Amino acid sequence: MLILSAPIVLADSGENYYMHGMGAGGWIFGPLMMILIIALIVGVVVLILRWMGITDGAGNRRDQALDILNERFARGEIDLEEFENRKRALNK
């Protein structure tokens, strides 16, 4: 009987119970690394899209405002003096 129980006792010696000596640290750093990797991938995609000009960044807002100003001037909604004042304000 002692001979039959020896492999069972040797199989679980009690040492290295948590992931072969790593402890429970894998439970903390695993999800953090997954979040970090996903954030890194999303950041790279956003930078590539902005570099390619697909998404509008804050720099395009001034161009849109100038387009609207030009359209309002062309339709006669504002006079030349107001047009020039607003254009100067947008170019600052």
What secondary-structure arrangement, pairings included, does this model have?
Layout: H1 2-11, H2 25-52, H3 60-75, H4 80-91
Helix pairs in contact: 3-4
Task: Describe the overall structure.
The protein has 4 helices and no strands. The chain has 92 residues and is an all-alpha fold. The chain has 2 domains: 23-55; 57-92, no CATH class. The chain is rod-shaped. The relative contact order is 0.05. The mean pLDDT is 77.
β-strand number: 0
Structural class: mainly alpha
Number of helices: 4
- Give helix and strand order, one letter per element, not per position: HHHH
Q: How would you classify the quaternary structure?
A: single chain
Rg from C-alpha positions?
Answer: 33 Å
Range of helix content: over 70%
Biggest β-sheet, characterized? none
Strand content: under 5%
What sort of overall outline do the alpha carbons produce when their principal axes are compared? Answer: rod-shaped
Quick check: average pLDDT? 77
| Poorly predicted regions | none
Alpha carbon gap, first and last residue: 92 Å
Give the count of structural domains: 2
